[in-house]
């Protein structure tokens, strides 16, 4: 194996990452503006230096080999360090600067968005925030595509390009208009869930799969409609158009106003809430501080009971 300095060629590592993310040489070529033969040469030099293949080529494109997956994880870290170094050199201020894009699931946003934004504006005045709110399935895809730096995710684990930092666990409940649940049982099990017509998001989102798995040992689900718009979903549930399977944080105001009721599921159904960060951004000073502050604000909301959770992780 050649000396380490040959292996730390950043343009080659960036080319390798692009091919892995795009899944093909041609798409990576378009993304980077580098001709395919030049990309092939860069990958060949990596493989010659390492003495192993890092990509498997097939008719549909390219995927990393086992050795390539190891390299991919390190490549993200090395490119992240390089990016962070350039940003630190570019500023003499002790306060981090730059834009950080944060994704919040609609349910989590109900309890986290306002206190978090106020906190970050006070603590990190030179950081420009871009906050996106939508369902978690979309956020994960945008995080993978590099359109977000940080996002709250549900039931995800770390992958080469994304690091998942656990925040807490949340229980899911059957949520419905209070009047419609006056005679409901104290808990909902798989055998009686079918009695409640549900309004659920589409299958791209984790909660749908959880609902189907929960009901699989009983009589299934009665899905009245699919809707990928959280605000409207909650309004429809509160108006009596159907029922939902949600964490309490999604309906905090409605629960206080007693317009909806939350009934536990038995066996309990919970999800892991994590803070997911693009690995390449882990060394970025602004992103690092934002992550730390999100963890602090989340812990405070959980400790004070403003964010209802199963347990702190």
From TrEMBL:
Pfam families xrefs: HTH_1, LysR_substrate
Biological processes per GO annotation: regulation of DNA-templated transcription initiation
Name of protein: HTH lysR-type domain-containing protein
Organism: Thalassospira marina
Family: Belongs to the LysR transcriptional regulatory family.
Keyword 4Fe-4S: no
Keywords (A to Z) from UniProt: Activator, DNA-binding, Transcription, Transcription regulation
Highest taxon listed in the record's lineage: Bacteria
InterPro entries: LysR_HTH_N, LysR_subst-bd, WH-like_DNA-bd_sf, WH_DNA-bd_sf
One annotated GO molecular function: DNA binding
SUPFAM superfamilies reported for this sequence: Periplasmic binding protein-like II, Winged helix' DNA-binding domain
Boundaries of every HTH lysR-type domain copy: 8-65
